[in-house]
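Quick one from the shared queue. A colleague (R.T.) flagged HprK-related kinase B as missing a structural entry in our internal table.

Convert sequence to C-alpha cells.
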Amino acid sequence: MKITSLNVAQTLMADTELVTDSVVLQLDDYRIGIRSNSTALLDRLRAYFAYTVSADDGDGLDSCDCTVYAIDAQPTDLDLSFTDWRREPGKTGRKDAYFDLIDDGRCDGRLVRKVRTGVLFLQSEMHRIAHGPCVANDNQVINYINCQYMNRLQHRGAVICHASGIVIDNRAMAIAGFSGGGKSSLMLRMLESPGSAFLTNDRLFIESSGPLEVRAIGIPKLPRVNPGTIVSLPSLRPMLDQQQLQEFEAMPTADLWELEKKFDVDVADVYGDNRIVPQSTLTDLLILNWKRTSDCDCQFRKVNLRQRPELLNAVTKSPGPFYADEAGKFQTDTAKEDHEPYLDYLDRVDVWEATGKIDFELASETCQSILRTQPCLRTS
C-alpha cells in the first residue's frame, strides 16, 4: 500500500471523537483553527494564545486558512523508517526524526516524530495533525501551531531570525546572541521598564515595509527563562515559591547560569495585557557577542554586517522540518541559509555588537537609550 498523507491522516484520526469546542487564532491576516479530542488541551491552548484568540473563537472555523488537529493519544508506531533531523551547531542529542510521504513520484507531505516524547506530526497541504501524548507535551503542540504561521510569513518573503524582540516608542529592537548569550534575559529586563512592550522571545521575522523600513513580526511564544533570570528580576520572583527562591539563591552564580531548567513567563499576567505587540518597525539589531568569562568591560559599538558576516551566524535560523515552500518542497537539514535577504533587510537598520563581559544592567540602559533617542525612519 502507498504511504500517502491521506492514508496516514486516516490512520491517525481513526476512531477519534472530537469535542465540539474549538479554538481560532487570528495572527495578522492568517487564521488558524484548532480542534482536538481533549477539552483540557483546548483550554490550555486558548489560555496560552490568549492575546491572539479571534473574537469569533470557536465559531469561525469555516473562515480559517488552516485547521490543526491535536489528538491526545498513546504514541503510535507506524512501522516507518524515520531519519534523524540533524541538529544545529552546538546542539546535541536526538530531537526530531522525519519521514517524507511520496505519492505519484512527488512529495505528498512529511511526518515528523519527536524522539523523546513520541508525538507525531503530519504536515501536508491538506492535513495538519499532531498525534500522541499531546496534553503531556502541549509545548510541542504550541510550537507546531506556530509553525503554520511561520510558514505563511516565509511564503510572503519574511526571513526568520533567532532573536527576541522588544518595542519602545513604536520602535523595535531585535536581540540575537550566540548560544546561552542571554537574549531572553535582556529582553525581560527591559520589560521591567514602563513603556516597553514584548514582541517575541526566540523567533522573530523581518520583512520589507518600504524602501528604507523593515517590519519586525513576533511569534506568539512565551519567553522561557532559567532560574537565574527569575531570581534577578523583581517582577518574575513571584513565579517561584519561597523554598525555590532560597534554593536557587544559595547556588553559585556559575552553577545557576548552567542550570537546565526553564520556566514559561506569562507576559500578560506579569506585565499586563497592554505590554504585548504583534509587530512593529525594526530600527535596531543587537548581537550579544559577550562572554561570561571575559575580563574586559562590556562595550557596545555599531557594526556593518557586510564587513562582519560571521555575526550573521547569531541571527540566521533554519526554517526547520515542518517548512515547505509554496511549491510544496520540504526543507532539508543540509540546506544553507541564504544570507543576502538578511543583509538586504538589515542594511536598513542600525546593527550593534555587545562585547566583553556580560552586563545586563548596562545593556538594558543602553538599549533603552538607543530606542528612545533615535528617529524611526532611516534616511541613509
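Residues 159-223+265-373 form a domain with the Phosphoenolpyruvate Carboxykinase; domain 3 fold (CATH 3.90.228.20).
Residues 138-155 form the longest helix (18 residues).
Added to the table.
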